[in-house]
Amino acid sequence: MQISSSDQRAKWIHPRDEIIATMQRIYRSRMTTTSGGNLSIRDTNGDIWITPARVDKGRLQRDDIVCVRPDGSVDGKHPPSSEFPFHKAIYAVRPDIGAIVHAHPVALVAFSICGRTPETRIFHQANAVCGTTGFAPYALPGSERLGESIAKQFAGGCDSVILENHGVVVGGESLSQSFDRFEAFEFCAKTLIHAGKIGKIQHLDETQLQLARDRSVDLDSIDAHEPTSNELELRRSLSEFVRRGCRQGLLISTEGSFSARVDDDAFVITPTQRDRETLQPGDLVYVEGAAREAGKKASRAVLAHQAIYRKHPEVQAIAFAHPVAATAFSVTDAEFDSKTIPESYVFLRDVCRVPYGVQYRGDGSIADHISSSSPTAVLENDGVLITGGSILATFDRLEVFESTAEALVQSRAIGPLSVMQDNVISELRDAFGLND
């Protein structure tokens, strides 16, 4: 597996600090509780660094983290997590695993208490990130039997394992990869729960998954690029909005691509294989014509962004994103209707549905599905596409899209949907100058 830039940076971070930062992120996103969950890292010496037992997960300090040596001796002021036995058992059967995340996020717990494992073939990135999934029968928490049950799944090649009536355990080469898998698995579970309320879920077959895997981008290199003050401002703004989107739950660390136009045929775009929440302005990739900034890898969606900019000069920013409720519409046959409240229609206009795979083609046909009267789209089994006249306008549309989608999902529990009638839409179009 290719080592990401995040993993390269992490090798200079002490395990104590990396565990604390990751636990803070999990806790802040409400994917664990004060008392629940545990993280560990196995370092190059074979030492296992792990969160302690019975210590507030929302206020961990670096001296709270416990080190368990290969000989079983413990270095720390607390005992290691009571779940240490299954961490040790996983490491014993999987030499390739360097870090483990265990927690009780709501959606995955829902699957665990129903005795089911989320199907990740609803969109390609979740399937790729989560790896092979498995299910471990119930055993007493902290027991050797639980460790044996979980280790059996990992020994069979699983990377993300549901624990019956308990939660989830994921492993990876690094803690950043384990977190990515954990976050993507929970996101997949949430999407499936939403999707199950609104329509028939559409899974991808192997041919469709391969179509996404086979995407490749071969751009020339711009060896010397000096950013203008305008580009620097766009980089700052774009990276800030991407981070905000992650913290608002609109995005996750491994999903989506985001860009802003710099000039007629130039734009900055998010890089591939980088944690979205940690992006800095300098991490974004400058693309001009058939070339990209030297030493960086642009998102594999770069050609789709470029095609939209070339066909639509009014578009100044683009987001291919996967907010949970909106993505539920993309993985089902349910219609997304923006005629719910005035804000939804005014911001989103007429939302089209793009057949699966159009955005992966190199022919630029994705740009044909966007217009001034239809600036947003649902991408079958791949989230949504948002365009706008600025970074702020695009982000605003993304927020409205997800809020509308969530309202539509929740309305199913109340009664039949009452959409705004044609005369109301005509009034809105006249009032807000939408008759282009």
Helices, strands, pairings?
Layout: H1 5-10, H2 15-28, E1 38-42, E2 48-50, E3 66-68, E4 74-75, H3 84-93, E5 99-103, H4 106-113, H5 124-130, E6 133-136, H6 144-155, E7 160-163, E8 167-172, H7 175-198, H8 206-213, E9 220-222, H9 229-247, E10 257-263, E11 266-269, E12 285-288, E13 291-293, H10 302-311, E14 317-321, H11 324-330, H12 342-348, E15 352-354, E16 376-379, E17 384-388, H13 391-411, H14 422-431
Parallel strand pairs: 6-7, 9-13, 15-16
Antiparallel strand pairs: 1-2, 1-5, 2-3, 3-4, 5-8, 7-8, 10-11, 10-14, 11-12, 12-13, 14-17, 16-17
Helix pairs in contact: 3-6, 4-7, 7-11, 11-13, 12-13
Provide structural commentary:
This protein has helices at residues 5-10, 15-28, 84-93, 106-113, 124-130, 144-155, 175-198, 206-213, 229-247, 302-311, 324-330, 342-348, 391-411, 422-431, and strands spanning 38-42, 48-50, 66-68, 74-75, 99-103, 133-136, 160-163, 167-172, 220-222, 257-263, 266-269, 285-288, 291-293, 317-321, 352-354, 376-379, 384-388. The model has no long low-confidence stretch (mean pLDDT 93). The termini are far apart. The chain has two domains: 5-198, Class II aldolase/adducin N-terminal domain (L-fuculose-1-phosphate Aldolase), CATH 3.40.225; 217-431, Class II aldolase/adducin N-terminal domain (L-fuculose-1-phosphate Aldolase), CATH 3.40.225.10. The chain is globular and about 70 Å long. It is an alpha+beta fold and 436 residues long. A hairpin with a 2-residue loop joins strand 12 (285-288) and strand 13.
